[in-house]
């Protein structure tokens, strides 16, 4: 019998857009604007120093909470960049931010707990919440409000089962960046209802309009927040698989205990790379951030010149959430049509929740030259605005 050895919970096809896209790639004429894996190569400084460390013997397990040297660098980073005081017991190094988030949910959610998540949202959130026995409660955000959380609407979603709020700024897929006033409003709600806030700050370095504001900067939030971060995007280190969590020490202690039965510790060589990334961030990051900003603004200008398409001005992150409603097609129809006619792969807005209908996510992960080729094809298909 097909699938006879799978658990009942896995018998339903749960493939998502992020995994199914892979089957479309391979044709040399295909331009992939779907997955958030930039074409930037990790800076040579990081690579050389990491492998030098490997030759010196850094090839063994580290402490389950992370290489003490890396934890010290993270502490220094948050002190220098945000004026925050983080204790070494409040940090756990993980195999990417998704790993950190998975363990955090396992540590903090009871069966049936509700987690409020602004929608559109990064699609793995739903799976990770449900794997921990929780339920995702979507908080719809709207393009006309720049996809920013409406605090009054947030309040209406709180029930006796509400356990946590999960935010992501700069946001994937919308690019929304939360202001201090928005975060303060969120904090007021969290404190009033005694909720946990999980803050996905993977794109913290890639903020164009103003410096990123962390949830940990808001008064009263350090003791009730779990920050998730990563070296993947801001340092062009996706394949190294290194992230971390910052949380109250008792939460980190529980997360470490859970992870000892999963992978014990993050790869030592990748942690050494992360150490050198932070130390050399002033030399490494500007080119990456400028590269993304140049691509995002190029895409913004090209999209808004094409018939039936529009997008908000980029504020942060590496994605453009393109409005395709004027074409009369659904997100699924548009993405299939685009692939068939132009060999461009994108993700449907509905991959990020129901309110993503009418939108397409474009990952600015290829060169401006490659983006020009892509938008030339789209322009030829739909024509320019009058």
């Amino acid at each position: 019998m097909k699938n006879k050895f799978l658990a009942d919970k896995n018998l339903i096809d749960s493939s998502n857009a992020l995994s199914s896209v892979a089957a479309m790639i391979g044709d040399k004429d295909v331009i992939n604007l779907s997955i958030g894996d930039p074409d930037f190569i990790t800076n040579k400084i990081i690579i050389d120093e990491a492998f030098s460390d490997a030759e010196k013997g850094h090839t063994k397990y580290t402490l389950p909470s992370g290489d003490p040297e890396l934890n010290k660098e993270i502490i220094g980073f948050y002190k220098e960049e945000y004026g925050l005081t983080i204790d070494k017991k409040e940090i756990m190094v993980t195999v990417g931010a998704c790993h950190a988030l998975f363990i955090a949910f396992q540590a903090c959610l009871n069966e049936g707990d509700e987690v409020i998540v602004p929608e559109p949202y990064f699609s793995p959130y739903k799976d990770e919440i449900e794997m921990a026995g929780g339920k995702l409660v979507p908080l719809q955000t709207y393009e006309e409000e720049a996809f920013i959380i409406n605090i009054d609407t947030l309040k209406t979603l709180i029930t006796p089962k509400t356990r946590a709020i999960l935010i992501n700024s700069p946001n994937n897929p919308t690019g929304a960046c939360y202001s201090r006033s928005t975060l303060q409003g969120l904090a007021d709600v969290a404190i009033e209802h005694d909720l946990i806030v999980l803050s996905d700050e993977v794109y913290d370095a890639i903020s164009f309009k103003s410096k990123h504001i962390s949830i940990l900067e808001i008064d009263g939030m350090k003791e009730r927040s779990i920050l998730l971060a990563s070296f993947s995007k801001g340092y062009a280190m996706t394949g190294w698989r290194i992230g971390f969590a910052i949380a109250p020490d008792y939460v980190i202690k529980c997360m470490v205990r859970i992870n000892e039965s999963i992978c014990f510790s993050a790869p030592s060589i990748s942690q050494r790379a992360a150490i050198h990334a932070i130390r050399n961030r002033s030399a490494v990051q500007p080119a990456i951030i400028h590269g993304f900003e140049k691509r995002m603004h190029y895409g913004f200008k090209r999209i808004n010149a094409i018939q039936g398409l529009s997008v908000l001005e980029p504020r942060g992150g590496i994605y453009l959430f393109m409005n395709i409603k004027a074409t009369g097609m659904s997100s699924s129809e548009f993405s299939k049509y685009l692939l068939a006619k132009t060999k461009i792969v994108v993700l449907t807005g509905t991959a990020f929740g129901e309110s993503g209908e009418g939108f397409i996510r474009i990952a600015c992960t290829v060169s401006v030259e490659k983006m020009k080729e892509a938008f030339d094809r789209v322009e030829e298909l739909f024509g320019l605005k009058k």
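The radius of gyration is 21 Å. Residues 44-282 form a domain with the Aspartate Aminotransferase; domain 2 fold (CATH 3.40.640.10).
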